[in-house]
Amino acid sequence: MRNLSLSTLGPLAALILLVVLGAFLNANFLSAGNITNVLARSAFIGMIAVGMTFVITSGGLDLSVGSMAAFIAGMMILAMNAMLPTLGIGVPLVLAGMAVALGVGLLAGLANGLLITRAGIEPFIVTLGTMGIFRSLVTWIADGGTLSLDFEARQFYRPVYYGGIFGITWPILVFAVVAVLGELAMRRTRFGRYCEAIGSNDRVARYSAVKVERVQLMTYVALGVLVGLATILYVPRLGSASGSTGLLWELEAIAAVIIGGTALKGGYGRVWGTVVGVLILSLIDNILNLADLVSPYLNGAIQGVIIVLAVVLQRGKSSAEGR
Amino acid sequence: MRNLSLSTLGPLAALILLVVLGAFLNANFLSAGNITNVLARSAFIGMIAVGMTFVITSGGLDLSVGSMAAFIAGMMILAMNAMLPTLGIGVPLVLAGMAVALGVGLLAGLANGLLITRAGIEPFIVTLGTMGIFRSLVTWIADGGTLSLDFEARQFYRPVYYGGIFGITWPILVFAVVAVLGELAMRRTRFGRYCEAIGSNDRVARYSAVKVERVQLMTYVALGVLVGLATILYVPRLGSASGSTGLLWELEAIAAVIIGGTALKGGYGRVWGTVVGVLILSLIDNILNLADLVSPYLNGAIQGVIIVLAVVLQRGKSSAEGR
Amino acid sequence: AEDKTYTIGVSIPSATHGFMGGLNWHAQDTIKRLEATYPNVKFVLATAGEPGKQVDDIEDMLATRNIDGLVVLPFESEPLTGPVKAVKDAGKWVTVVDRGLSQPGIEDLYVAGDNTAFGQVAGEYFRENLPSGAKVVILRGIPTTLDNERVDAFEKAIDGSGIEVLDKQHGNWNRDDAFTVMQDYLSKYPKIDAVWAADDDMALGVMEAIAAAGRTDEMWIVGGAGMKEIIKRVMDGDKQVPVDVTYPPAQISSAIEMTTLHFVSAAPVSGRFIIGSTLVTPENAAQFYFPDSPF
Amino acid sequence: MTPALALQDVHKSFGPIEVLHGIDFALRPGEVHALIGENGAGKSTIMKILGGFLTSTSGQVLLDGQPAPYRSGAEAEAAGVVVIHQEFNLAPDLTVAQNVFLGREPGRFLLDHRAMRRETQALLDQLDCRVSPDARIRDLAVSDRQMVEIAKALGRKARVLIMDEPSAVLTHREVEVLFRQIDRLRASGVALLYTSHRLDEVRHLADRITVLRDGAVVRQALRGELTEDGMATAMVGRDLKDIFPPRRDSFGPVVLEVQGFSVPPVVQDVSFTLRRGEVLGISGLVGSGRTELAEGLVGLRTHRGSLRREGQAITLHSTADAAAHGLAYLTEDRKELGLLLDKSLRENLTLSTLGRFGRLMISRPAEETALTRAIEDFDIRAPRRDMAVGNLSGGNQQKLLLAKTMLPDPQIVIIDEPTRGIDIGTKSQIYHFIDRLARDGLSVIVISSDMPEILGLSDRVLVMRQGRVAGELQGDAITETAVVRLVMGTTEEATADA
Ligand SMILES: Nc1ncnc2c1ncn2[C@@H]1O[C@H](COP(=O)(O)OP(=O)(O)OP(=O)(O)O)[C@@H](O)[C@H]1O
Ligand SMILES: Nc1ncnc2c1ncn2[C@@H]1O[C@H](COP(=O)(O)OP(=O)(O)OP(=O)(O)O)[C@@H](O)[C@H]1O
Ligand SMILES: [Mg+2]
Ligand SMILES: [Mg+2]
Fold first, then answer.
1. What parts of the sequence cross the membrane (chains A, B) (predicted)?
2. Which end of chain A has the smaller Cβ count within 10 Å, N or C?
C-alpha cells in the first residue's frame, strides 16, 4: 500500500515541485497567459503521448510519430491549398483539411500496425523505417524547403489554435477531452483492458479469446488518428510544414509515457500519468525560459537531470517491482 | 530447423543482396578503397553496437552513447591539448589521450549503470537524461563551437585512423577484434550467458545465484569503455569534437542490434548479427551516395524501406517466436 | 531615459553545427559586453532545436519576461511569422536576423546575410577559374529554404559556363557527414576538378577525405562562412583552399547592438542591413581572421 | 448417448517427432474421465488438442459427434469447451477479477467493474479461496493462482471442462474444495476430463480412466476396475513397490542452526536445527510462510535473526552467498522463478554453476556431459536435447529443475514441493534419490503440501502456522493426525470449543 501511493504520487509530486519552483523564480509564471501557453503547447505532444500510452501498454513502440506529424501536416497543407480554389476560404475548407489530416493519420497508423501485426516485424524496426520514410517524403514534397498554407486560409484557420471558449483555448480543451477519454478507455473499456493483458502476456490474452493482433493494430491506428488530431491543432499555429516539423516528438512522447509510470515493457498503462509526464516536460522548458539559470548550452543537461530526478521520486515502485 | 536457418541467414541474406546491388550499380563499389571506407566508417558504430548488444540482451537500453562519444571526444581533445606542453608530441601523449578516453568512457558507463541498477530507474529514462547531459556538456565546453586537437598532435595521431598493417586500417582491425571477442563473450563466457539469462527472466537469474545487478552494471560499463575505444579511433579522423559529434549514433547502434536479430526485450543476443546489421546500415548509405537513384531528399525513405525489408527477410523467426 | 530599464529577448537556433555555434558564441559574447556597458538593459537569451520550440520561447518571453524588444533569427521563416507578428502587435520592437519572415513589414529592423550572394559569389569564382567541361561536386546543407537559395544561386552563376555538376548530396553542414559523402564521391568519380562545400565545417571534412584518398593535388575546395581555420589557410595561400566566401555569424552581434542602441540612445536604427557575402582571397584574408572566436 | 467430445485416431507430431500415436477416446456428459500417464506421455498435448489450442497432425476431434467447429482456444470456449491449463494462464499484471473475466468482460460500453468484482468474489467464495479480487496475480502464491485459474474456468459456464493437473499445487484442503465443485458440475451434466499424478484422487473421482503410455492408450477402465497399484503398473509398465525408502536412523552433528529467524511481514521468530544426514519436513497450510522462510534462509528475502553453519555465524544476502555456504533452494514456482522457459535444457541446467564449466570460456562438451548425466540420473524425457524448456512436459521441467538445484553439490538443500506434477514412478525415484543424499551425508529440508510425502520422507517434521512454528514432531510421533492437528491449530481445547 505504501509503495502504491508512492508510485501514484511520484510524478504528481515532481509536477508540484516544478510549479512551486516556477512560481518562485518568476512572478508571471502563474499568470493566465503563461499557463495557457504551457498547456496549449503541451497539447500536441500530449495527445500523441496518450495514444503512445496504449501502444506501449500493449507491448509496442512507435518511433515514427514525429515524422508522421510532419507528413500529415504537409499533406494537410497541400490538400487545403489545392482545394482552396474550389471551396474558397471558409469552414468547408478547414473541415476538409481536418478530414485529410485524420484520414492520413489513420492510414499511416494502419500501415505501421499492419506491418507489425501481419508481417510480424518488431515495432522498433517498422517504426524506425517509417520514421525515415515519412520525414523524407515531407522533405521531398516540400523540395527541401517549407510547405506553407495559403496566407488567407491560415488567417481563417488561426483561431483553431488561438481561439477558444470560456477563456480556454481549443488545444487545451481538445487535449483535456482526449486525456479524459483516454483514461476512461484505459481503465473502463475492453480495449484498455486488452492492451494491458497483451502487454502483460500476449499468449494468455490469446488463450482468453482476446483478438491480440486486432487490438494491437487498433493501438497503432488510434495513435495515428491522434497524431492527425494533434496536427490539426498544430498547423494553425505555425501554418507550415517542413523536414524539421515534429523533430524528436517521438522521444518526448515516449519519455512522457515512461515518466508517467507506464512500464516500457508493457502490461501496465496510466493515461493520467502520461498527462502529468507531458506537463513535466513542458514545464521544464518553460522554467528554463523563465529564469536565466545558466548558459543556454546547459539547458539539455538541466533537462536531463530533472527528468531523472522526477523519476527518482517514484523509485519506490520500480525497485519493488524489480524483485 | 528450417526456422532456425532462416533466422540465422536472414540478415546475412540482406547483406549479400546489398553487396550485389552495390556492385551492380557502381563498378567502384567493390574497389579496395571503397570497401576500406565503408568498413572503417562502420567501425565506430560497430564497436558501440557490440556493447549495446550486451546491454539489450540483458534487458537494458542505452540512449546516451552518441552524446557520450561526443563528450569523451571533447574530454580527450581537451586533455591532450592540456598535456601537450608537458609531454610533447609523441607516443606518450597519444597513450595518455587514449587512457583519458577509456577512463571517461568507463566512468560514464558506470554512472549510467549505477543509476539503473542501484537507484532502480528505468534504463530509458536514465540514459535519456544522461544523453542530454553529455551533449550539453560538450557544447558548453566547446562554447558552442568545435574543440580541435592541436594541429601537430593531430598529424602525429592521424595514422591511428588512416594507417594500418597488411593494408587493413586500424579501425577495421580493432572492430574485427572487438566483434570476435564480443561474439566469444556472448556465446562462450559466463558473462554472455548471464546477460541472456537476465534478459530472459531476471527473477530466475537471481534465484540461480546470478549477481543480476552486477552483470547489468558490467554491461553498461563495458559499453562505456567501447564508446571510449570508438572515440579513440574517431578523434584522429577529423581531430575535432562538437555538439553535433555522434548525433543519432544511439539510434543507429540500437537499429543495428535489432536488425542483427537480437530481441529488443532481451534474452537473446547475437553479436555477429549486430556486425551484419552495422554493415547493412553503412552499405545503405554508401550505395545511396554511389548511385543516383532518386532525389537525395528521398534517401531517408529508401533507407527506411531497406531496413524494414532486411528484417522481413528474417521474419520467419519473429513470427515463430512471437506465438 | 537613463533610469528606465529595458529587457531585450534574443531567440536563436541552438548550436547544432559550426556556423550556428559561432552565432551562439557571438550572441553570448555581445550580450555580456552590452550588459556591462548598459546596466539598465537586460537580455534574455533562448536557443531552440526546432521551430516549435522557438515559438514556445518567444511566447514565454512575451508572457513572463516582459520584453521590450525581440531579436530573432527564425529557425524557419514560415512558422515564425505569426508568433513574431504577435510580438510586434503587442507593441514591442522586433529585429529579424538572417532569415526574413514570410510577410513583409513586420520587423522594425532587418539584419541579414545574403544567401543568394553567398551562392553567387562562389559560383562566379568557379566560373572564372575552371575551364569548360570541368567537373565539380557539391555538398549541400540541411534541407531548408536557405540551402535551396544558395544552391540555386550557385548553379545559376555557373550556368552556361560548361562546368558540369556531377553530384549534389546533403552533408548537413556537418564535418562527419561531409567526410562520408566526399569519400563516396571519390569512389564514384575518377576525376573531380573542384568541390563546392558551401560551409567551412563541411570543407574541413571534405579536405580530410581527399587527403585520405591521396588526391590532394587533383582538386580545390571552396567552403563558406569564414571559419578561422579556413581563413587562415586562405591567408597562407593554401592551394587546396584558394578562397572562401563570408557569411559572418557576427551579424547577430550587429543586430543585438543596434537593437540596444534603439533603446539607450536616440539614434534611428530601423531599416534593412544586408551584410553581403565577400570573396576572401589571400590578399584580404587578414581582415576576416578572428583567432579568438570559437568559429 | 453420443459423447460430448471425442478424439478419433489422433496423431500429433512436433517437428519430426510424433508424440501421440492414434488416440481414441470420448468424454460423456455427467462423467469424470481421468487421463493418467507418466510425465511426457502426452496428456497435456491431448488436452490442448481437445481445447483447440493445438491442431492434431491427423485424426479428428468430434464435438457431439460432429467434427469440431473450432480452430482456436477462443472458439472452443465459445462452443463450451473450457481448459484449465497445466501452466498458468493468467496475466501477471492484471488483478484476479480482471483475469477471471478476461475476454468476456461484462458491460456494454464501459466495463462493469462492480459486477466483475462481485461475481469474482462469489466464485472465490465458492472455492473457499480468500484472495482479494483486486489482488494482482504477480503477488499471489502459486496455489492461490491455481485457485484463480479454477475460478476463471468455473466462471465460463462450460459443458466440457478439461483440467490439466489442477491439484498439483493445491493443499489437501483446497483439493477437497475442488472436488466438491467437480461433483457439483458432474451432477449438472458437464463432461469432465481430469489429470493428476495423485492416484488416490483419480480413484476417488473418476468414473472412467484412460491410461496413456508413450503417446498411446494402453488401458481403459471403469470406476472400481483399477486399484492405485494397478494404475501405477499400467502407467509405468512394471510393478512399483516401496514408494518410500526406509527411514534413516543415524544422524551426524548439527550443520545449521536457525535462531529467532523472521522474514517480514510473514515469518516470525522461527528457530530450528538441522543435522547432517537428516530429512526435515516442513508442513503447513498455503500461506503459512514456508516459502518465505526458505527464501529468507537462502538470502532471497530480507530477514532478521541468526544463522549458524556448523557453529559459525553466517550472513546471507543473496543466493550466491548461500551457494558459497553450501545451501541450495529449489523454488516451488518453476515457471516464473525456476527455469528460463525459452532457453535449452543445457543452459538451464548449468546456469547456477557456470563457474565449474571452464574458467574463462565455458566448455560446451563439459556442459553436454553434465546434461547427459542429469538426463540419466533424473530420468528426464525430452524429445530433443536442444529444445526450449518451455516445451518440455510439466513433470520433466520439474525433474530438470531438480537436476539444476543438485548440480552445485550443496550440503544443505531446501526443496519446495519436490514432486509437484511428477508421475508416481519418478516420484518414487526422487524419494529414493533424496534418501540417498541424506545417507551420503547431506541435509535436506522438504517443504511439501503432500501429506504422504511429509509422512513418508521426513525424519523430523516442522509444522508452520501463520508464520510461526506451531510444533515439531520426531520419529514415531509423526502421524497424519498429529501433523494435521498442528497444521490446523486444533489443540484439544480448541476442538472442545468447536
Ligand atoms: N511445443 C512442443 N514442441 C516440442 N515438443 C513438445 C511440445 N509440446 C510438448 N512436447 C513434447 O510432447 C510430449 C508430450 O508432452 P505433454 O506435455 O503432453 O506430456 P504430459 O503427459 O502432459 O506430461 P506431464 O505429466 O509431465 O505434464 C513431451 O515429450 C513434450 O516434450
Ligand atoms: N510478493 C508478495 N506480495 C504479497 N504477498 C505475498 C507475496 N508473496 C507471498 N505473499 C503472501 O504471503 C503468504 C505466505 O506465502 P508462502 O508462499 O510463503 O506460503 P507457503 O506456506 O509457502 O504456501 P505454499 O504452499 O503456497 O508454498 C501468502 O498469503 C502469500 O499470498
Ligand atoms: Mg502435462
Ligand atoms: Mg510455498
1. 38-56, 63-83, 89-111, 123-142, 162-184, 217-235, 247-264, 271-288, 294-313
2. N
